[in-house]
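Re: magnesium ion structure - here you go.
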Amino acid sequence: MTWFDVEEQKRSNSLIVGCNSSGKTYLLASIEQALRLEDDWKTICFDNAGTFSKISDIPEKYRVLPVSQKIPIRSNICYDTSLLLRSAQIRFMSEMMRYYWLSRAHNGASKWLAFLVEECELIWQRIRSKEHEAILRICSSGRNQKLRMVGVTTDLSLLDTHYIRLAGQRYFSKQLVEENAQRKLRRTIGKSWTEQTAKLEVGEFIYQKGTEIRAVQVPCYNKICETMLLRENRQS
Ligand SMILES: Nc1ncnc2c1ncn2[C@@H]1O[C@H](COP(=O)(O)OP(=O)(O)O)[C@@H](O)[C@H]1O
Ligand SMILES: [Mg+2]
């Protein structure tokens, strides 16, 4: 794959930034699929926007409701958390991540696990609450537990710079015109690449990996597991 490096995903995290309808969720679905098809990876998606679960072929989808319920804990699953309030979404993600951290710290892990997060600005912020600590820990030192993250956001200016630094692979599609977002992008990829983002079409990204930076065209996402059973909870 010229547009995604699985080995780099083991070393760090990934970040996808761009305005609406620029291909972010399709790219996230492509990355999820690519990881899941590797022998040594599993995935868990937190779909805070309610769009990923509609397009992905991830084997299981579970809609989290804003009432108390027994949550299935397993991998290769997408939790649709779009019905929850923001505070409940943050709590849900951090509890899940804390669970996997502790479980892996005690029992070890043979496979890598990627958390894929739509609207990652919810959790990749400067706020220093207990929830955010559980998340920062995975971004910074999750490698030891084989836990990694892929975040998607529309607005780079809402992310704490610390999280941006912890993302070794970054994808920038067409950006918000808002000045704060543009300024932060210029600081991240420089002035001329920032200007390039304005010309990008859907599915095209400026791809930054370490010191390497180039434009990439991501193949349009295709479901390849149509025949797999898609389980959803009854209420959805
Ligand atoms: N790589 C791609 N190549 C061609 N078309 C794409 C590609 N990615 C997405 N699209 C088209 O663009 C639309 C918006 O993509 P989406 O990923 O939902 O955008 P975003 O998440 O940035 O709002 C999709 O419905 C799809 O039709
Ligand atoms: Mg989207």
